[in-house]
Amino acid sequence: MTQSFFPPQRTLMGPGPSDVSPRVLASLARPTIGHLDPLFVSLMDEIKGLLQYAFQTSNELTLPISAPGSAGMEACFVNLLSCGDTAIVCQNGVFGGRMRENVERCGATAVMVEDDWGAPVDPHKVAEALKNHPEASVLAFVHAETSTGTRSDAETLCKLAREHGVLVIMDTVTSLGGIELKVDAWGADAVYSGSQKCLSCVPGISPVTFSPRAVERIQARAHKVQSWFLDMQLVMGYWGGDSKRAYHHTAPVNALYALHETLVILQEEGLDNAISRHQRNHKALVAGLEAMGLSMAVEEAWRLPQLNSVCIPDGVDDARVRGRLLRDFDLEIGAGLGALAGKTWRIGLMGHASRQRNVILCLNALETALKAEGYALDSGAAVEAASDYYQSLTGS
Questions:
Q1: What distance in Å separates the CA atoms of residue 166 and residue 7, rounded to the nearest whole number?
Q2: Measured between alpha carbons, how far is 290 from 308 in angstroms, rounded to an integer?
Q3: Global pTM?
Q4: In the predicted structure, residue 190 carries a pLDDT above the cut 80
Q5: Which DSSP helix (H) or strand (E) runs through 332?
Q6: 98 marked as part of a ligand binding site
Q7: pLDDT per residue as tens digits for the range 300-312
Q8: How do strand 86-91 and strand 109-114 relate by DSSP bridges?
Q9: What span, in angstroms and rounded, lies between the C-alpha atoms of 199 and 271?
Q10: Of residues 300, 308, 296, the one with CA closest to residue 359
Q11: How many CB atoms lie under 10 A from the CB of residue 234?
């Protein structure tokens, strides 16, 4: 007879999901109530307000899609693009390529702006594409490219879009709650994220927010959105501000308890403090990695503190190291994707996982795994370098 599944206690330091706070896990076990229960409707309003805080927006249409970040991405594209439209799509990693897929599946044309993996999106190339394609109605880019650990200059890219009268679709799956993100101040129009990265919630929810400009575009559509489930005109009736909600789908009630709890935790810490914490632990980790003789794959100015892309030394077996970390230390780090497969590791310091204890654990474990590969290093130097960095912050 099949028995219940009891997973081991891992430390999740890959590209996501990240470690989940015990408070969030406990919230999942609370009694399930109906998705149209007045108390749940009140909870929905609180979630909306907390998401507005996280996104730094006053957008009325701010809500969690009842599906993972990929559905949030699709919701933005299918609502803002129709057959025959043109979108400028920036690609400097895997997820810019997924944006292209969404554009083409809408029957629209994708004008690609491509940059090297590990480099940020080049605003000069974007400006040239906007100039050469006045028919474009959307500019789409990834703020924090999960496949490479690279940040792009979202504020500048949004400004270019405004100057050319196009709407912005922005992927913030890995940036929300980890680095500066100001939806209203920057002028982004359709922004999507995921629950399992810096928010440290369970996977399966995609926070999204749409600007008044985007809502106006949606309401002016000549044809129905190709996805019934992701049609924002229908979803608005369920997540709208009126006391009476129109049934659209059965929301994942307990998962939304978890999202609410993780957003409460973020509010308690304060967004600026959370961003500072990610940066602090990132610098300690980098100090330790460099003391081991390892190098980072992304230039310092564009590195994501929550997702560290590390070059794998020659002669070191990628899969064997990651397997040893998982088997011997219950520690998960991520492999490189696409063009960087086998060339980089992706070490996450996201949300609840962004802690000094995890930095030290990772450096100790990685040192052991690299020694087993025959990689020459100075034993204990990595932890010492990270500890010295932490001590420099306290002045002790």
A1: 47
A2: 12
A3: 0.96
A4: yes
A5: strand 331-332
A6: no
A7: 999 999 999 999 9
A8: parallel
A9: 11
A10: 308
A11: 16
Three-state DSSP class for residue 230: coil
CA neighbor of 269 nearest in space, from 63, 50, 61, 108: 50
Closest by CA to 346, choosing from 116, 18, 14, 118, is 14
Rounded CA-CA distance 304/16 in Å is 14
Instruction: Report H helices in the chain.
Output: 22-27, 38-55, 69-80, 94-105, 123-132, 154-163, 183-186, 212-219, 232-239, 253-269, 271-291, 318-329, 356-372, 381-394
Residues 205 and 259 in one domain: yes
Complete edge-to-edge strand list for the sheet that includes strand 167-171: 61-65, 206-210, 190-192, 167-171, 138-142, 86-91, 109-114
Residue 83 DSSP one-character state: T
Residue finishing a domain among 214, 235, 268 = 268
Query: What does the alpha-carbon distance between residue 365 and residue 360 come to, in Å, rounded to a whole number?
Result: 9
pLDDT at 244 over 80: no
State the CB neighbour count (10 A cutoff) for residue 105. Answer: 14
Which among 268, 287, 304 is the end of a domain?
A: 268
- Asked if pLDDT for residue 240 goes beyond 80, the answer is no
Which residues does residue 168 pair with via DSSP β-bridges, in sequence order?
Answer: 139
78 with 49, same domain? yes
d(CA 190, CA 81): 12
Q: Which domain holds residue 331?
A: 271-394
As for how many domains the chain has, the answer is: 2
Helices H / strands E in the chain, number of each:
14, 14
Nearest-angstrom CA–CA distance, 235 and 64: 10
